[in-house]
Design goal:
The protein is mostly beta strands. The chain has two helices and nine strands. Strands 1, 2, 3, 4 and 9 form a five-stranded antiparallel beta sheet that branches. A four-stranded antiparallel beta sheet has the order 5-8-7-6, with no helix packed on it. Strand 1 and strand 2 form a beta hairpin. The longest helix is centred in the first third of the chain and has 7 residues.
Length: 168
């Protein structure tokens, strides 16, 4: 079977920067619904279109094709007193960027990582850790199956624990 619209594709993958430094070893296979459902970067989806199990592709992506450009406006310095005592660099928190509309509710919620700590200040970064990086995505198709009608209607794969699974 070939990768085509409305198939569920499984990829073994790794991601490196343009110098060849591994940034994601792809410990778990990537499983997605193929066919424009925004489950995977469009350039990767284009590259695996028509491939069969065992075939590999290498996709070079600029920041705009992957996790976007680094946005310095998403870095915030907050008082240390607003955080738990056990705070460490690398911890993550949900938050809303400064200046975001209160009317947008969930629309502007980001995951912020603690990147630095000083005596009474904490530096938070709302950028994806790979933002601003050109990346090389190497993958091998390890599985292709027809998507179920339910997966197609929901626009994503189901592995049995989807909260939408009982909606129909």
């Amino acid at each position: 079977m070939q990768v085509a619209k409305n198939t569920v594709v499984t990829l073994d993958y790794s991601v490196a920067d343009f110098e060849g430094v591994l940034v994601d070893a792809g410990q778990e296979p990537l499983v997605y619904l193929h066919g424009g459902y925004d489950d995977i970067f469009p350039l990767i989806e284009e590259a695996v279109q028509g491939k069969k199990i065992g075939e590999s592709v290498i996709v070079k992506m600029q920041p705009d094709d992957a996790f976007g450009e680094y946005d310095a406006a998403l870095v915030q310095v907050e008082p240390r007193s607003q955080f738990p005592q056990e705070l460490q660099v690398g911890m993550q928190f949900e938050g809303v960027p400064e200046g975001a509309d209160d009317d947008d509710e969930d629309e502007d919620v980001l995951i912020y990582r603690v990147t630095e700590m000083a005596d009474d200040k904490v530096v938070l970064d709302g950028n994806h850790p790979l933002a601003g990086m050109a990346l090389v995505f190497t993958c091998t198709v390890t599985g292709v199956r027809p998507a179920t009608a339910e997966e197609i209607s929901h626009g994503h794969t189901h592995d049995g624990d989807c909260e939408d699974d009982d909606d129909e």
